[in-house]
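SEVERITY: medium
COMPONENT: batch folding queue
REPORTER: lab tech (J.R.)

DESCRIPTION
The queue accepted two submissions in a row. Attaching both inputs and their returned structure tokens so the on-call engineer can compare them side by side.

ATTACHMENT 1
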Amino acid sequence: MKVDVLNMQGEKVKQVELPAAIFEAPINVDLMHQAYVRQMANARLGTHKTKTRNEVAGGGRKPWRQKGTGRARQGSTRAAQWKGGGRVHTPQPRSYVQQMPRKMRQAALRSALTVKASEAGVVVVDSVTLPEPKTRLMAEALGKLVGNASALVLLPEKDSDYEVVARSTNNIPDAKVLLAGYLNIRDLLGYDKIILPLKTLDVLVANLG
């Protein structure tokens, strides 16, 4: 698949062939869904907690004698039916981590990249650089590259250009800068356009090809 290579002004400078193994891979919707659910589950802290009847304070004394009062027998005022009592069958700390083999995660990313490419959602640029960290400069560049669409900017490595571009993008609500090595299914599916510098293609080939 051949696509145009743009500069930061949105002008075509040349064409490049996208790697077929990554951008023309079989589309597996179920695999993408599994990878997305796994990522969202693994992001959960699992620190929810409620107190059971043996953890709440008070209730040491039997409220009334067992027989002869005409009332139901009670052993503690900290039982679940009492105000201020413990809770039954409520959340306790747990891990939501789901396992997924690396090759399956890679296949899910290739499927998502193929979907983006088929929908013209991949924008290849020669490089993403700014003379200084200014939100205005990055917003203008994104406007020329993707218009009003949300954008995920994938950079090849963490260098001086990365720091400038990341700082310039922080205050733009519909844009995010991410290292290509940290590419994930949630970000891929969460943005309309993927901006790929030419050097990022080499990183993707090394990680997914």
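ATTACHMENT 2
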Amino acid sequence: MSEPTSAAAPKKGNTTLIIAAVAVVALLGGGGGAYWFFMRGQPVAAKEAAPEPEEERGIVGFEPFIVNLADPGGSRFLRLTVKLVVENPEHAKELEENLVTTARMRSAVLDLLALQTADVLVTPEGKAELKKEITERVAHLAHETKVIDVLFSEFVVQF
């Protein structure tokens, strides 16, 4: 019998190269397909969740708050200027013109501030929690106006 010639049998090096090339193409195609599948809806979802333009919001401002904090000894105080971001300028104007509602909101914020301690307020988490609590307290007093955000334009804790 004669031995098989090298032209009749496929070379092992060529087979390995072809399998590796197919695997690389499959991986790249799978990665591209996964990226397309997961990222195709991102711009639409981000657009839907985008907040309204800032020009369409209203601001309700308060005189600065100066409050003794609930620290032991009562020697620490907070000076804070708060502004509420509400749904639209018309609602902001209505709130500012309603002196009873404005006084009630100011009183609610003062009551809340008097319960705070300096060591909590000076942390970022403490400030974030204070914003959340102010929003909750004034939201029900603002009647049909939605409070979007609470802004601090002055925040001084005296030690």
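NOTES FROM REPORTER
The chain has a mean pLDDT of 83.
No errors were logged for either attachment.
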